Amino acid sequence: MVQLGRHYGAGPASLAEIAAAEDLPRAYLEQLAMGLRDAGLVVSTRGAHGGYEIARPPGEIRMSEILRALEGPIAPMICASDAPDHATTCDRTASCTVNFLWVRVRDAIAGALEGMTLADLVPLRAGLLDLDAPATHPVLQGAASHS
């Protein structure tokens, strides 16, 4: 998704290009692309200049959407899934003394993912970060202050 976010507005990107850039097997990317397409996060174009594009601007795609499309419900433990039917996965959920902990962990993870968009992970249009330039991106500012 980061590669597609970098390519936003420039037309479809081929899975072969993405596979080469990320050093991932194309077959694996095809599986991911199907899940992302089914979730409405990417669109595909067939043909010689075909490939995949993100369906919305990077700033409108929450990381929580991407993670749920690829991994399913957010759940540090099965009993704390954010899926609507999670209460039926464990018959002890109502009386479990540590379920409260797992629900808080899930909510913290979900909150962090909701608070970030794909744009937060996509470097500027050039596709590469200038490591000598001052950090202006919120995430990079935090990283710069720790180096």
Detailed description of the structure:
This protein has 147 residues and is mainly α. It folds into 2 domains: 1-55, Winged helix-like DNA-binding domain superfamily/Winged helix DNA-binding domain (Arc Repressor Mutant, subunit A, Orthogonal Bundle); 61-123. It has 6 helices and 2 strands; from the N terminus they run H-H-H-E-E-H-H-H. A two-stranded antiparallel sheet has the order 1-2. Strand 1 and strand 2 (51-54) form a beta hairpin. Helix 4 (63-71) crosses helix 5. The chain is elongated and about 55 Å long.
Total number of helices:
6
Indicate the low-confidence ranges by residue numbers.
125-147
What portion of residues is helical?
A: 40-55%
What's the total number of strands? 2
Number of domains: 2
- Describe the largest sheet: 2 strands, antiparallel
What is the end-to-end distance?
27 Å
Please write the string of helix (H) and strand (E) elements: HHHEEHHH
- In what order do the strands lie side by side in the largest sheet? 1-2
Computed structural class? mainly alpha
Radius of gyration, Cα only, in angstroms?
Answer: 18 Å
Shape: elongated
Q: Per DSSP, what share of the residues sits in E-state strands of 2 or more residues?
A: 5-15%
Whole-number mean pLDDT: 81
